[in-house]
Amino acid sequence: MTLTQYQQEMLDGRYGKGKALAMRVQKTIGEGFRAQRMVPITRAHVALSAQEADTWFARKLRDAGAQCAVPPTVNPGYCLKYFQQMGRVDEKSSALMRETHQVYQDLGAILTYSCTPYLFGNIPRYGETVSFSETSVTVYANSVLGARTNRESSASALCAAITGFVPEYGMLLDENRRGTVLVQVDTPLQGEFDFALLGMNAKRIGPGVPVFAGIKPSDVTTEALIALGAQLNVAGMVDLFHMVGVTPDAPNLERAFGGRQPERTVTITREDLEAQRALLMPQKYEQADFVILGCPHYTYDQICRAARLLKQAPAVVPVWILTSAAVVDLARSTGMAGQLGESGATLVPDTCVDEAPCWGHLAGQRGFTDSPKCAYYMRAFGVELDVTTCENCLALAAKGGKS
Ligand code: F3S
Fold first, then answer.
1. Which end of the chain, N or C, is more open, meaning fewer C-beta atoms within 10 Å of its C-beta?
2. Quick check: bond before 167 cis, omega within 30?
């Protein structure tokens, strides 16, 4: 890989040991993918996790004097204030969250703690080259916004933020961005839950860049696109999808496939969606002890929907709704947060479902979520959830479960 003089100087340590280490990581990745050169980025998003390995790596860069050339936004960890008040997190875990905050602040990150940066605070334009990590963020940026990013890890995105460059390969190159698999959707889709079910068919769709056809553009919401991308990357590995008449590189089939023929065609029927739905209720709970929503972080519209539903039938078991601090602020200013509180739901900012110290106490209780991704992550620390629509989750929360 050819480096510019400035990049070579960075690698040689002229701008400090921290930048040199970050450049070494970037160069090694680039060589692994046979990149020819490094290109500048305009934005970064780091999937910070407040887990030890991630903080260790960030600390190593900070201690070596690194500073971000492109200040990245960051993924959620957890809201220390809320979970300390609830008495849920022990001192060891709180210390790690505090240290993570400090290290990333020292590096110059923008501490947004949200997994929907593309809605608030870090929104690339079409064609921008960025370095984004996080399962649902990368695919949204590539597919819906038409930005260009590889599926970075938190470490590689942080290195890119520090150097300001990424190796040019994969999704940064035109030839890898055209569609390769035609996915004919032969059933109407209603609400984001159907789109999550569609995403759960990632294994049937197989490798490549899927082009979804047959979906009515008027049925597609921002939330639907978020749910689809998130599930495509939990059930499979998708950097980019196109949707005819919806996403920017797919005004029609010909453009989506770059004038070539699809390598294969997959048809998704209502039966395929229902087969996935059947897998989402492994516990077959009939009552709820709690509900957790917001993986990925809920949008303001989703919060308003939850508030409407809970106004009709308030929750009698805990309902946690995870979202960004920006959306919490908006919900406070519009009175929506207060309305939710009166109906038994709590808006939790800055927090990920994949935080065992916060949620581990729910193991053994009957929980519901509307996110297959949430169920997948929480299972790792013993919290078993059934997954159904937001409407069903909140109806169950209103019915209650404790005997
Ligand atoms: Fe967001 Fe954590 Fe889910 S980062 S998408 S809440 S696993």
1. C
2. no
